[in-house]
User: Fold this.
Amino acid sequence: MGRYDGRVAAITGAARGIGFGIAARLAEEGASIAVVDLNAAAAAEAAGRLPLAKGAKAIGIAADVSQGAAVDAAVARVVEELGGIHVLVNNAGVTRDSLLHKMTEDDWDLVMSVHLKGAFLMARASQRHFVAQRYGKILTLSSTSALGSRGQVNYSTAKMGLQGFTRSLGIELGPFGVNVNAIAPGFIISEMTDGAARRLNVDAEEFRRTRAEKTPVRRVGTPEDVAAAAAFLCSDEASYVTGQTLYVDGGFRL
Assistant:
């Protein structure tokens, strides 16, 4: 039996990258998965690639997590089509990197809306079910950029805000059987980090190699590294862990 047999997990931004890695890991361990993504076709395609356990299901749902009506409809569909909801992973995110003097209001507002408002709306819609059943897991993706990152004042602010969000919800929802935690990944091989390399006019492989040399474990991370931590934090084995942010960064901050 898997740790997630009979559980339903909704994961935002799960059509690719870290989100898909987490979805695949939870699916392998028995969960039914709702891949929630802005792109309907990508969500459906990703759901179809998940390594589902016997009896589990996966669906793709298109939703803009910064819009309350869309979020409420998405969570209602998860419950209706998959039979409930037990795990929420807030992973959806965007970057609009720029130095402060070049950053526009739109750059700031978009990052805040997707990361902060999106996590708020998804948590609010999901907790209605979690509190009623006195069981639930909320996991939110922060970042080592929360500690400060040149050219990412919007992203860094949002990611640190999510750590405060996690601590506050841990206090608020703990009495109702809901655990709330966060993961702050370091450098993870993904389209996002490859995009950062392109913006810096650096070859992606060279970008990874340079970062690996600065990391104590002498490698960069993969979506599977984050998924392994997520699989623990969203499981019953972590029932005495709440309000915490786990840095999965190969020791880069040391």
About this structure: The chain has two domains: 8-186+223-248, 188-220. The domain at 8-186+223-248 is CATH 3.40.50.720 (Rossmann fold).
